Amino acid sequence: MIRAIVTDIEGTTSDIRFVHNILFPYARQHLADFLREHQHQPEVAAALQSVREEAGQPQADLAAVIAILFDFMDQDRKSTGLKALQGMIWRDGYLNGSFTGHLYADVLPALRRWQAQGIELYVYSSGSVAAQKLLFGYSDEGDITDIFSGYFDTHVGAKREVTAYRTIAAEIGQPAEQLLFLSDIRQELDAAAEAGWQTIQLLRGEADSESRHRQVTDFSQINPESI
User: Fold this and answer.
1) Tens digit of pLDDT per residue, the chain (227 long)?
2) Hey, how many other C-beta atoms are within 10 angstroms of the C-beta on 64?
3) Which of 148, 167, 185, 223 could lock onto 156 through a cystine, CB 3.0 to 4.6 A?
4) What is the three-state SS of the chain?
5) Is 102 exposed, middle or buried (0-12, 13-18, 19+ CB in 10 A)?
6) Angle CA(171)–CA(23)–CA(154) in degrees, nearest 5?
7) CA distance 45 to 64
């Protein structure tokens, strides 16, 4: 019996093009000015120091850190410091109405249905928890953050690491076999399955011939009671 469902965002609840064509360019465009203006704020300073340490340059000045961040962006690196800073910049974009968080049309009805069935809902994404809350707080469907019982990001570990799913299971407080993870990436699902989780692969495009996970094309095809 599934007691909790944990969902990925990019490519799962939300179109990957929203992230790559809207969010990433917005953060890149505003990064330097944002950091020059806010570098001394505690949360910004902490994220900058995290980037310095990750890059092995603990004494790097702001200009050097900005260059490092652009390099991380070019690599699509899952840097916790970068993700935190992107989330802070995106907050401005959501607040000023530059964009709303994309949701596939099949997502919210399924989430509401599962919530009504007493299933707890969580999010696990490489984007920061703050960024996750912004996407769902300013979504195409309005503020739907009330649906979720909690959020996880790379502070619990990388999404392809088995230990991350063990940590999440411990924090949720349910046996791994009663947890269901939804993602479009089979390597993430492989890690979750190795940790004892149930898995389903959301594929909005072509099937993944190398995957061993059950594949569906939208949330309406998922029935937790049959798993």
Assistant:
1) 999 999 999 999 999 999 999 999 999 999 999 999 999 999 999 999 999 999 999 999 999 999 999 999 999 998 999 999 999 999 999 999 999 999 999 999 999 999 999 999 999 999 889 999 999 999 999 999 999 999 999 999 999 999 999 999 999 999 999 999 999 999 999 999 999 999 999 999 899 999 999 999 999 999 999 98
2) 14
3) 167
4) CCCEEEECCECCCECHHHHHHHHHHHHHHHHHHHHHHHCCCHHHHHHHHHHHHHHCCCCCCHHHHHHHHHHHHHHCCCCHHHHHHHHHHHHHHHHCCCCCECCCCCHHHHHHHHHHCCCEEEEECCCCHHHHHHHHHCECCECCHHHCCEEECHHHCCCCCHHHHHHHHHHHCCCHHHEEEEECCHHHHHHHHHCCCEEEEECCCCCCCCCCCCEECCHHHCCHHHC
5) buried
6) 25
7) 14
Q: Which two tokens stand for residue 174?
A: 């349910």
Q: Map tokens 């969902």 to a residue.
A: 7
Structure tokens at 92: 């401005």
Place of tokens 């029935």: 223
Cα-to-chain-centroid distance, residue 150: 12
Report the distance separating Cα 54 and Cα 65, nearest Å.
11
